[in-house]
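Protein modeling request. Please complete all fields; requests missing the sequence field cannot be processed.
Requester role: graduate student
Desired output: 3D structure, token encoding
Chains: 1
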Amino acid sequence: MFEKVCIILLVNLCFYLKCLGFKYVSDDIPSANRKETHPKWKYWLLVLEGHLKSNPVIDHAITIVLHSLVCAFIYIGFGANDVSFLAALLFSFNPINNQGSVWISGRGYVLSTLGMVGAMSMPLLAPAWILLACYSNAGFLAPLVFLGSDYSWFLLFMPLIWGFYWKRFKNNVQNKISQEMYTEDRKIHISKLILFIKTASFYFIHSIIPIKTTFYHSYMQSMAGAGKEKAYSLRDRFFWLGLVIFGWMIWYWTTQPWTMASFGLLWWLITLAPFCNLFRLQQEIAERYCYLPNAGLMVALASFLLASPIWSAVFITMYATKMWFWMDAFQDDYYTVEASCIASPNSWFVWHVRAMKRWGNQSYQEALIMWTMARLISPKEFKILFNIASALKLGKHDKEAEQFIKQAEENIPAGQEKQANELIEGWKKGNIVVLL
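Delivered output (436 residues):
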């Protein structure tokens, strides 16, 4: 066992070593600019959590070490056998894990996973590990997966742990509901199962076969707003593939002996369910939501691949090759956005982010071009129409600006009327702003 743990750690440390030369990207940047004074012990805890940043080299080193530990604990926690060893290697390189294994701000998802597999690896310290797992919202409900394992007794600790975090978790959810959710996001109805099946299917397929890796996905974009009709449409391959996937999983659970593969699939479903858009509190699609579920899915995949060394090698090579080249997208913020636009050019949001970068550098004409590209993809996005109006007004094209602010007013997302109307009123009074 010791030799295989060393192999897993060494392989990860060597593979991700080049990340030490990367800079901060996306959400790393505002947290790196926070100026907070804390005692040294608390400062380093906040750096570990990701709330604060130390410097790019140290922060990337922490990410590499944490991801390596997760992989080692997958091997130990899932039985320290050939299946769990293969699962650890598959998880190490899986490209869909990139927002946990490379991106510093994905730290919360990594810590939740570390807590879960750490509890299985060190059962006597399970309460401490599960306390870590539940710290992030991503892992709050994750311990429910232990019902399908030999560690169901871990749940005896959960009333205390959930009680300890309940106020914090509740406040986080309420803030999301009040500030970010559209009316459609708050609704609960049977049609939401379509969104659940599509989202879960998309994640399942992209976790097994990395068809598309990008920071900003186009699939399910604006599902509660301008893209609502498309989101609920049944003319979508991921819906029908999802029915096949769920049908197969139900068949496997009910007709086959309960094995490590069965547990891995249950782990995947329970930990992914909060991010499948039944009650959306997060970005519609983001690869970081797969980090914790993917630990279970890779165990299931390894169970099926183990009998074939050739197929095991094929999957490890496929994952490592894709991840090796995609890692470079995180070398700095410019490359993250540009690489995402190349990978997913039909995502209106990535064009919008490109525009915001240009606007921040006072390249207003370029920003207008980028927002125009975003509008071609999704013509009824409120923030795109609003930003085009602001860019035109700044360029003294008042007549065209008025036309776009009128379109923006006609396309205010349900549930965001108060904030949107305040912005429009301010715009009409000469307060030119743009919306991220």
